[in-house]
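Lab manual, section 2.4: Encoding a predicted structure.

Procedure: take the sequence of the chain (489 residues), apply the prediction step described in section 2.3, and record the output as structure tokens. A sample record is shown.
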Amino acid sequence: MEKPAAKRFQPRGRKVKILTTVGPASRSPDMLRKLVRAGADAFRVNMSHGDHQTHAETIHAIREIEAECHHPIAIFCDLQGPKLRVGSFAGGKAVIRHSGHFTLDRNPEPGDETRVELPHPELFGLLEKGQRLLINDGKIRLRVIRAGEDEILCSAEVGGVISDRKGVNVPDAEIPIPALTEKDRKDLAFAMQHGADWIGLSFVQRGEDLAEARRLMGGHGSLCAKIEKPMAVRRLSEIILLSDAVMVARGDLGVELHPEEVPPLQKRIVNETRKAGKPVIVATQMLESMIESPTPTRAEVSDVANAVYDGADAVMLSAETAAGEWPEEAVSIMHRIAAQVEHDDAYLSRVRFLDTPPDATTADALAHSCMTIADTVPIAAIVVFTGSGSTARRVARERPSVPMLVLTPSIKTARRVALLWGAHAVTTRDIGSFEEMIAKGKRMALRHGFGKAGSKLVALAGVPFGTPGATNLLHVVTLIGDELKRHTS
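Recorded output:
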């Protein structure tokens, strides 16, 4: 039985969304409920850790909470991608001398302080003199002296302790391996079977990397390209075009790039994705200290605020909520930072500093008009009727000054919109006439707290109703007292 309207989920009071990673510290149904109450709009299931049974239980718990709060919640399944690793060492570890020589080869025997196996034949013959190899998240930095078919001789620019199976990053070369491993294919099939709304694709280097994932998804869910390699940055426009959203994976970018290169690159990725009218997520190490501390550093607060000022659609928490000691507090503080920034008088001008001109289509022109009307007339909300979510994305690209109430007959669309800037999605039966559109828009706005007597709304839809891609109707309506009485009686 449906719960009373008074207990329905209310708008967050902020436009940027919070993507929260689920892990051992947060996967219990009770903690998931707390995270939703604290401000989580979507949950990231990291396929790099855990098994399918655990992930299935997590997804089921999220869907139950979604039903309880009568509000769509997005599930983002993040694929691991290929991992390059060194082999093993005699005794489990060795010490590489600073400025000494170290060889990576194809010999499977345990390594020592002079050499170790690199069990990735595709790298031999690919690397060139002067290119870098980064081991253990960049803690060890090697520079190639000579690369052959069987061994790669390097100079250790930064040495140190190296142990079994540590990861290897190759920032200066395009690696000829696909973005999907056999594990990823199984994980993707699992995600589709369990109704994941978003798939995060790791190790993207080129547009073609997205093609196989698209094929395996079979038209279900949306695909987010994770930008975590310099090679992807070189083909950013192509990757944005072929994806449904983009994630700035700053942790991995920070390993392969110099630290000072990451902030301007983050802004570039956010800007280019916004121009394309697609959601962009800023991720990793946003409130890193909250893994152990109940409060963030001032630098972390500024980091989150900076992403919000840049107009990112979503900001992500990873280890803070997956394995940290203060998951609920991390979500709550991120919510408070975002809300405070959005109440800054300078926020809107900062977000709109990026010019996002509409495409030469009727739908884009009307979406732009929604923003202009909201800037000119006191508007409570923009009510968007959509089947696929494309109209909502067009409106969000304009970064209007008022929230957007997205009405859709598709629960799948409503869930995907949970990562879209400024959108509050509600599932409802499709409309069949202009009169029904106006009546339903008013009713839903009142029910979900987007207006009161005397408030004006902008309604955006397409005629004929129910036809995808036919956005061609904009109407301004006023909520009157009698409607408010009928809704509350």
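Check your result against the sample. The chain has three domains: 5-81+178-345, 90-169, 362-488.
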